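Exercise 7b. Backbone tokens:
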């Protein structure tokens, strides 16, 4: 992953440029001078685990202990999530319309990161619905005041 957000697999390195094949099977030619002056994230480096972050917002008044339990169960049941380190849940903040949590878990390789996020999000949505946990959306209360006429 380059600073400019190009993401893909390096397929060739030449004297003047490097060719990268994106996840959409598009070949990008990047001048080596750009690469030399960019921050590069190597997601295929030989590291055993990659962290996935899943934000989850719930309505005020929801049972936060139940939410934490559900999120941990969902992560533990996913075939791409590793057991060690185990998944974690963090209550991140009190939002304007929601209590904001984050599920942290690890997968074994970057190629399953997107699929895992999809599967976890779908499972969270379904489990929250089954357990009556509301995913809020921004709401505003509008109060209207009517002035009384002075002549009446």
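Sequence design result:
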């Amino acid at each position: 992953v380059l600073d400019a957000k190009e993401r893909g697999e390096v397929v060739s390195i030449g004297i003047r440029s490097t060719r990268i094949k994106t996840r959409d099977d598009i070949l990008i030619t990047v001048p080596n001078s750009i690469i030399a002056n960019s921050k590069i994230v190597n997601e295929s480096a030989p590291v055993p685990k990659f962290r996935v972050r899943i934000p989850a917002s719930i309505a005020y008044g929801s049972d936060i202990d139940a939410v934490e339990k559900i999120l941990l169960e969902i992560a533990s049941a996913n075939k791409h999530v590793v057991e060690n380190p185990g998944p974690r849940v963090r209550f991140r903040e009190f939002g304007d319309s929601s209590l904001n949590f984050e599920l942290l878990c690890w997968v074994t390789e970057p190629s399953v990161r997107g699929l895992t996020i999809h599967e976890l999000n779908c499972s969270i949505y379904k489990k929250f619905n089954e357990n009556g946990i509301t995913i809020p959306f921004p709401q505003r209360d509008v109060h209207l005041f009517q002035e009384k006429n002075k002549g009446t």
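Instructor comment: The helical segments are 32-36, 64-77, 113-130. The chain has a mean pLDDT of 89.
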